[in-house]
Amino acid sequence: MPLQTKPIITQGGFLRKIGLDFIWVPVAFIFTYAISSYLNIADEFYDWASLYEKSIDIDELLPALLASLMALLWFANRRTNESRILIKKNHALLQRILEVQEDERKRIARDLHDDLGQYLSAIKAQAISLQYDSSNVEDTQLTLKRIISSANHAFDAARNMIRSLRPVALDDLGLSAALEHLIDTWQSININPKAHEPQAFQEPKVESTHYQLHIHNPIDGFHEKINIALFRIVQEALTNIAKHAKAKNVSITITHEKPYLTIAIADDGVGFDKGTPAIGYGLLGIAERAEVLGGTLDISSQLNIGTTLTIQLEVD
């Protein structure tokens, strides 16, 4: 079934709609004038007003109508400005989506080249060596072992890429198991990825980060849209911490008290000043995911103390 999407509202299209609205103003004026003339509304109104002249200040009706018209124009102008702001946010969000898609494509291409490409090239080279020289049994056995090892590494690399694109555990075992697997994966990650390089090019060894996951009350059984969004929020937060926080301890606490679900992600890293104007794409992505679910994101951070992200949304 093809994906159906609503067209993106552009500023030019929005302004054209406003222009069409203004065209209808003289049309409405001419139509009203014609009907009023035909029905002689002014004289009928004068006769009606003369009956209540002593009890109603008819003379004050015109200023009141003018004030009401000005108020309507002011409200319309405010709504127009708000719509323009929403359009700008719409464009910024679209640009963000395109950037994320491009970054994801680059990451997948890099992983395919660095991981799968490396091991598949090794398998090919080792298989070619067997094709031209298979007389020595010991060398043949050693080469076969290397081929098997390279194939296993390629399989693991492909499986990791599949998990990064779509967490299999989320479909098979549920949200809690998927989050536990995510935490276990982060706990086991080699935080010094350049360890295979010569000593002169190695970065200083980073102290290991300890991750903890606490889940209060069951969190399985939500709608798929909520599950994947919550998983991505935690995943994005952990990635953000690994990139910027330099934290020794990270705790994820999920509390489900109907109808609300609260996720608190805390680290003891370097923190940041919330007064700085630039907010990274990681936090922006988390805020966007929370907003899509009708939730809120609260950020509490202090320099050299740490950061706590609190996401709250209604799930029941």
In short:
With 316 residues, the protein is α+β, with helices and mostly antiparallel strands. It has eight helices and five strands; from the N terminus they run ααααααβαββαββ.
- The overall strand count is 5
According to CATH, the fold-level topology of the domain at 173-189 and 206-316 is Heat Shock Protein 90
- Listing every helix as H and every strand as E from the N terminus to the C terminus, the arrangement reads HHHHHHEHEEHEE
Please report the distance between the alpha carbons of the first and last residues: 29 Å
Average pLDDT level: 78
Main sheet specs: 5 strands, mixed
Could you tell me the radius of gyration in angstroms? 32 Å
Number of helices: 8
Could you name the ranges where pLDDT drops below 50 across 5 or more consecutive residues? 1-10, 190-206
Main sheet: strand order: 1-2-3-5-4
Give me the CATH superfamily of the domain at 173-189 and 206-316: Histidine kinase-like ATPase, C-terminal domain
The CATH architecture of the domain at 173-189 and 206-316 would be 2-Layer Sandwich
CATH class of the domain at 173-189 and 206-316: Alpha Beta
Structural class: alpha+beta
* Overall helicity: 55-70%
